[in-house]
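Researcher: Re-running this chain for the archive, since the previous output was lost when a drive failed. Same request as before.
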Amino acid sequence: MTNKNSNRYATRFFVLTGVILITSLLILAGASLDRLYGLSFLDKLLLRVQPLGKTVVSQRLVYEESRVIEAVEGVGPSVVTVNISKKQIINPFGFDVGPFGLFGPSLGGREEKIEQGIGSGFVIAKDGLVVTNRHVVDDREATYKIVTTNDKTYEVKNIYRDPVNDLAILKIDADDLKPVELGDSSNLKVGQFVIAIGTALGEFRNTVTTGVISGLGRGITASSPFEGYAERIDDVIQTDAAINPGNSGGPLLNSAGQVIGVSVAVAAQGENIGFALPINIVKESLQNFNQTGKFSRPYLGVSYRMIDRDLAIMNEVPQGAYIVEVIENSPAEKAGLEAGDILTRMGGQLINEEGGGLAKIINQKKVGDRIKVIFWRDGKERETEVVLEEFDNE
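Model: Regenerated structure tokens:
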């Protein structure tokens, strides 16, 4: 009996000694890897076994901050400012302010050249291709320049505007730019950490803000007071990362420094609500551009606002796309559509939040497609056929 107890104690002693020895070796190896190669094996091990205290929280915050810094340092040189240059009439009402603050008659307004930052963009090819929003460069009477983070200025030679998405590609003469890395927006999650970079207020270059993804698949009528535009945008990313006027066209990044969206607008009546186009939409547009040298897109030729279910019930009209304006000589005008019509079906697809927005449906079609359109006018349902044409985006 004594021999059995002795053997049992000896076994326990050797097992305990072995565990202590292995643990000591792991700690020694972890410390060596950390010192020689910067591998934080020991830190990760300790983070898992320690209780959640101030030290652990502090280490995690330092880790998150370092990821933001790394992402910004990596992508920052690829973010640019879009400057606009145009002539503008100053004091068009024909009155001048005298030396004593009194108004007096003037010979009329004077013409003055205005130059200012108006938006942001990011480099997608080292030979001078820059992505921004279409609304940033929508003034065809103006000229535009690109300013990099190291204060180099390039004149924009060509602008290719996407008629479907709020995107544009700017071509400049350069061959040494640093392109960004495009991520994947198909697997984004609500609550995911994001970083926005852009020229806030058109003046403060490479402004960095952070936040999370607040929503996905949003359909909004968004506006930017700085650029002065409003339009319907479908399937966008909602974020609480501050997207200020002037950030339009800048990149929205994940924690790995990959571009997962293009900042597009702030909500007209919201606080801390910004929106970005998913990068996969951009990649589809870029593939189309690389194949044809332009954005070969079908277009209908209307500006519109969506009527949701509640608004439809309130006004006793169907859900659909309410036409605000019909573009002259467009497929919509040729098909007899008018401002005030409500488009309810296109090619058999319902035009509503559930069935798909108008822009999304058109984007699925091809140039030359003949499509039956059902619309509402004067309390009656009507039908017409449209032939989608290619939009001249240059």
